[in-house]
Amino acid sequence: MKPWILGLTGGIGSGKSAAAAHFSALGAHMVDADHAARWVVEPGRPALTSIVERFGEAMLLPDGTLNRAALRERIFQSAEERRWLEQLLHPLIGQEIANHLGQAESPYAILVSPLLVESGQRRLAQRILVVDTPEHLQLERTMRRDNVPEEQVRAILQVQAQRDERLRHADDVLVNDSDLAHLHREVERLHDFYLSLRGGQP
């Protein structure tokens, strides 16, 4: 029986990584979309070759890996270049995610993605869990964790799917407004529930 896929998402500072780590500790196979995005541009992969062909050797660091800062700056200046990059990478990232999900042997597998709703990756999942946190806590946690000013966190919150949009797509919501022990209890409760599901549906 093929495992069904749970899409796990949440805004910055919501605690989705801590939730994902606990699901993983309980035995759920986990794939992180951010890792997949890094894998597809590793040296020797076709995507990196295409990026260098288009934007030049300045896109490489001395060790042959992608110069992310240079690429970010380049596509930040041009919507057309950004679209080109997205068209190159999105299908490859999707393929990478699908390959890794295909290796799952647990009853259900988890796709963790901060942009699950915006990127269309939600189509890979049979069920969606949103880790939700009141905005003032998101700000506090992120400022503390990343040591960044409030304006910067607010700017990231603006870019990520608005909270209402994420919640509109949610099958389940884990409200993470307490401590780590509470988060772990909620994850364990959901894990037991998910093990009872067939294909992600009750």
Automatic annotation (TrEMBL):
Keyword ATP-binding included in the entry's annotation: yes
Keywords, in A-Z order: ATP-binding, Coenzyme A biosynthesis, Cytoplasm, Kinase, Nucleotide-binding, Transferase
Gene3D superfamilies associated with the record: P-loop containing nucleotide triphosphate hydrolases
SUPFAM superfamilies: P-loop containing nucleoside triphosphate hydrolases
Pathway named in the protein's UniProt entry: Cofactor biosynthesis; coenzyme A biosynthesis; CoA from (R)-pantothenate: step 5/5
Tree of life domain: Bacteria
Main localization category: cytoplasm
Record's signal peptide: none
A GO molecular function held by the record: dephospho-CoA kinase activity
Classification via InterPro entries: Depp_CoAkinase, P-loop_NTPase
Localization terms from the record: Cytoplasm
The reaction(s) this protein catalyses: 3'-dephospho-CoA + ATP = ADP + CoA + H(+)
Binding locations of ATP: G13, S14, G15, K16, S17, A18
A GO CC term attached to the entry: cytoplasm
Gene Ontology biological process: coenzyme A biosynthetic process
PANTHER family cross-referenced by the UniProt entry: BIFUNCTIONAL COENZYME A SYNTHASE-RELATED (PTHR10695:SF46), DEPHOSPHO-COA KINASE-RELATED (PTHR10695)
Family to which this protein belongs: Belongs to the CoaE family.
Protein name per UniProt: Dephospho-CoA kinase
